[in-house]
Design a protein that fits this description.
Blueprint (H helix, E strand, L loop, with lengths): L1 H7 L5 E5 L15 E2 L4 H5 L6 H11 L6 H20 L23 E2 L5 H17 L3 E5 L2 E7 L5 E7 L5 E5 L3 E3 L8 H8 L15 H8 L4 E2 L7 E6 L8 E3 L13 E3 L14 H9 L5 E7 H6 L9 H7 L7 E4 L2 H8 L3 H17 L18 E9 L6 E2 L6 E3 L5 E7 L6 H4 L10 H14 L8
Parallel strand pairs: 1-4, 8-18
Antiparallel strand pairs: 2-3, 5-6, 6-7, 9-16, 10-11, 10-15, 12-13, 13-15, 14-15, 17-18
Helix pairs in contact: 1-5, 1-14, 3-4, 4-14, 11-12
Bound molecules: flavin-adenine dinucleotide.
């Protein structure tokens, strides 16, 4: 959308194709949190920041795994993107900017979001596209799935073939094509093939099917970033899937609710200090567990006395989740039976509970946990299975620092550029979650491409 908007300021020959029958893409489901350094808003609020500090933070948070060239391109141009959004009336939450929320914090307050999450960004972008369509500067084809790219004998991309909702095929020619088809995290097959694990979330946008990945590869491009597959710290699912829904969100942020429960893996072992403040450390610990899965274990007294730990559920509603045959919510009168029901090693679980209870009584938890309110001692006992999963797609189409799609030998494929999640979360966030480093680069790279194709004064 950003590429189309900025290109349409310079030329009236922009064709925007979307498989969905509405504009907006992942902004229909995403939080739309952004990060940008050196913005006007920061200056107005007296926050000193610059792109170098943003870049250093991303390389620190990703432990050097992000793509330096693309992170540079993103962060040195992020402020201009953000300032533009503000000029267009972006309905920002007045609490912003902050250094972090939900993800590992930045060293400075450069994290922003709209009062309506992704909708606040849609409210800026979609009317501008609609206006450009009305002005005849953008031709819009909704409900058109891009099926293939065409090339000339020299290997340059010359256009795209689409299929509309009625099944008719269309061919469009263009000197410049930008692939911006997003990720693949709504496709169980592509997710499994590229990430090596099953897809355990239905949060990504339904059209994130990895088609752009296939199209780019079909003309000589290649995929990268498998080694940076990364997950969020877990979802409460309503079934095995594919693309299972969610029962709710666990409050696993010790800053908001210190944990009363323990977390164990399939071996029954505790694998992380549950009150570890760093969400990045908890995510990395989960990444190393079998199937990126853990169980939250507690007893009757904790269920009765602890503050509710599922966002939006009170204690009675949480208790009710165990009453029916709901998958992944387990209850038993003893730990051995609980472990068998939950699919956790029983000896391991009993050992973990004994060890944890020792820590509660002695004040010396083996893992160094500080919040030790109650032992896990009084049946019935409870366990909830929690699944780590990635909402953003790690693997992406390789591009150079001008966003041209490249071949394995590094040469650019003429006529073809790419932007957004199609480039892979592995590139702009590395093996970590860096706040705002998907949505902001998507907008920024789109803006840069839209601005670069036709000089402003030519108005072709
Ligand atoms: C639940 C959730 C929360 C998130 N929260 C944040 C956040 O707070 N901050 C952040 O930085 N990132 C966040 N992200 C990630 C971020 O929102 C996305 O990476 C980003 O919006 C992707 O933008 P995009 O333009 O590349 O892709 P999309 O917005 O997915 O757009 C791709 C478009 O291409 C279309 N398309 C796909 N295939 C075809 C085809 N074959 N032919 C034609 N059209 C096609 C789709 O319909 C879609 O409209 C979140 C993601 C999710 C799922």
């Amino acid at each position: 959308m950003a590429a189309a908007i900025f290109a349409a300021e310079r030329t009236s020959r922009v064709l925007l194709i979307d498989h969905a029958d509405v504009l907006g893409g992942t902004l229909w489901v995403a939080n739309g949190q952004l990060s940008a350094a050196g913005t006007r808003l920061q200056r107005d609020k007296g926050i000193e920041d610059d792109a170098q500090a943003h870049f250093d933070d991303i390389m620190r948070l990703s432990r050097g795994t992000a793509n330096e060239a693309l992170v540079r391109l993103a962060v040195w141009n992020a402020a201009e993107t953000f300032d533009w959004l503000m000029e267009q009336g972006f309905d920002i939450d007045p609490a912003c900017p902050v250094d972090g929320v939900g993800h590992e914090p930045y060293s400075r307050a450069r994290y922003y979001w709209g009062r309506n999450g992704g909708a606040s960004l849609r409210d800026v972008l979609i009317p501008r596209i609609e206006q450009a369509v009305a002005d005849g500067r953008i031709s819009l084809r909704l409900g058109h799935e891009a099926l293939s790219l065409t090339t000339n004998p020299g290997g340059a991309v010359t256009g795209v073939t689409t299929r509309d909702a009625q099944g008719a095929e269309h061919h469009f020619e263009a000197a410049q094509t930008v692939l911006a088809t997003g990720g693949y995290s709504a496709s169980p097959d592509v997710y499994q093939a590229l990430n090596g694990v099953p897809l355990y979330t239905n949060l990504p946008y339904a059209y994130s099917q990895g088609v752009g990945h296939r199209l780019g590869c079909s003309v000589g491009g290649w995929l990268r970033g498998q080694e940076n597959f990364f997950i969020n710290f877990g979802f409460l699912l309503d079934g095995e899937g594919p693309r299972p829904g969610m029962v709710g969100r666990l409050n696993t942020y010790p800053q908001r609710r210190p944990p009363w429960e323990i977390y164990v893996n399939a071996h029954g072992d505790r694998f992380v200090r549950e009150d570890m403040e760093s969400v990045d450390a908890r995510e990395n610990a989960l990444l190393e567990q079998p199937v990126q899965r853990y169980w939250v274990v507690f007893d009757e007294r904790i269920l009765t006395e602890a503050p509710p730990f599922i966002a939006g559920f009170d204690a009675g509603e949480i208790r009710a989740l165990f009453a029916d045959d709901r998958p992944f919510f387990y209850k038993a009168n003893d730990l051995e039976t609980l472990a068998q029901k939950a699919g956790v090693d029983a000896h391991g679980l009993m050992r973990a509970v004994r060890g944890y209870n020792y820590g509660v009584h002695s004040g010396n938890d083996f893992l160094g946990r500080r919040h030790l309110p109650l032992p896990i001692a009084q049946g019935p006992f409870y366990a909830i299975r929690v699944q780590g999963a990635a909402v953003s797609s790690a693997v992406g189409l390789a591009v150079n620092d001008q966003l041209q799609v490249i071949r394995p030998d590094g040469s650019a494929i003429p006529g073809l550029w790419a932007a957004g999640e199609l480039l892979g979360a592995s590139q702009t966030m590395g093996r970590a979650v860096c706040g705002g480093m998907m949505a902001t680069p998507a907008l920024t790279f789109g803006r840069l491409l839209g601005q670069s194709f036709v000089p402003l004064n030519s108005k072709a």
